[in-house]
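In response to reviewer comment 3 from the previous cycle, which asked for concrete evidence that the modeling workflow produces usable outputs, we include below a single protein chain processed end to end. The sequence was submitted unchanged, and the resulting structure tokens are shown without manual editing.
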Amino acid sequence: MTIPPEAQKQLREQILLSVQNEQSTNIRLKICDVVAEVARNLIDDDGNNQWPEFLQFLFQCANGPVPALKKSALRIFTSVPGVFGNQQASYLDLIKQMLQQSILDSSNYEVQFQAVRALGAFIIIHEKESNIQKHFVELLPPMLQVTIKSAENEDDEALLKVLIDLAESTPKYLRSQLEQIMEMCMKIFSNEDKGDSWRQLALEVIVTLSETAPAMVRKVGSKYIAALVLKMMTDDDDSNTHPRVRYATCNAVGQMSTDFAPILYYILKMMTDLDEDETWSVSDEIIDDDNDSNTVVAESALDRLSCGLGGKTMLPHIVQNIPTMLNNNDWKYRHAALMAISAVGEGCHKQMEAILGQIMEGIIQYLQDPHPRVRYATCNAVGQMSTDFAPIFEKKFHDKVIPDLLMVLDDNANPRVQAHAGAALVNFSKDCPKNILTPYLNAIMEKLQNILTAKFQELVSKGTKLVLEQVVTTTASVADT
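The workflow returned the following structure tokens.
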């Protein structure tokens, strides 16, 4: 059914009046959404805005004295930032003035908050128009100040999400304030009293910038990344560090700015955020880790940072941290170190390949670690490196990897570790040259056959099948190779 033109006109007038007159905040917000949708549909294919009264209404509300109407105008503009259509060029200074006045309105934080969202939306729809970004770049410092205030208040995460969207779509727009953005995000991320979602969002800003503007981050963030190593090497138990090394580290720390929280240190620390669960290693049903958990987020961030910034930037700091973590009495740090090695192989491939021998010498012993989750993480690292560095890895380390994985396959007390050893063997055998794998086939197949026999009996008596399913897969993979 088509609404007659006169009725359409009345509808448009009424919804604008409703925005102005409605006393309920929730209802007014819903009316704003309706107005935004109507405005969106009144821009034709040629970019002509067929509702000029709306544009006048927008500026009147945004520049008027009533905070609720300012917020309403900014909310509508956030929803439809392209509302000016082909007339935008002539309105550009007025749009800037509207946003600038609102962002600088220190007497009303809610207006500032909505203005930041509106500015973010406007810049993002002009992601390919550098002239418009330059025109609005002077609004970036006050925008960042409001975002900092938002993080301090911990009232709404929306502004950090705006920053993530800008980092993804228009990283060059953020260039002039990159150091301030890094500092803010590091401050949030390093504050372990902050909520997990705030810390994760702050980390996401840094990681996204590392992916979309790696050169910018390398230039500005080098001091942050250098600080991580020093912080990591002076943290926790340093009994295994030579005194002269500790002295040199402390001396370097004294010469370095301490205003910035160390990224890698806190990423690695976040990877230790694991629960003590005595049933974990004996569970027959694998429940995937929550994608929002700190450990999953941190591991993903390490992977993405390595791919974004590259091995030259990342690997030296990671490698220097790993021995300290592996020597930690707390199993969670050993686990994190091994999972970190798994995570950075793709991004640091060239640099890691040159030191594979040192890495393997450092980690292979942890297949015999007293804690089952550390043994699991070692299997994970070995399996991942088997894939990332094939076939060089298989050629160099078959005499260590195969016997040690076969040993872990005997870990009947911890079926989840046992199964993961089988999964690592799949990765290893997949790209292993036949002439290298063949001498081990009898030992491998005998081991797998013995486990199959035992696990079939367990399936009948207990109903457990995790290891059985993995060993069937491993047997098929080895046979296929």
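The chain has a mean pLDDT of 89. We consider this sufficient to address the reviewer's concern, and the full set will be provided in the supplementary archive.
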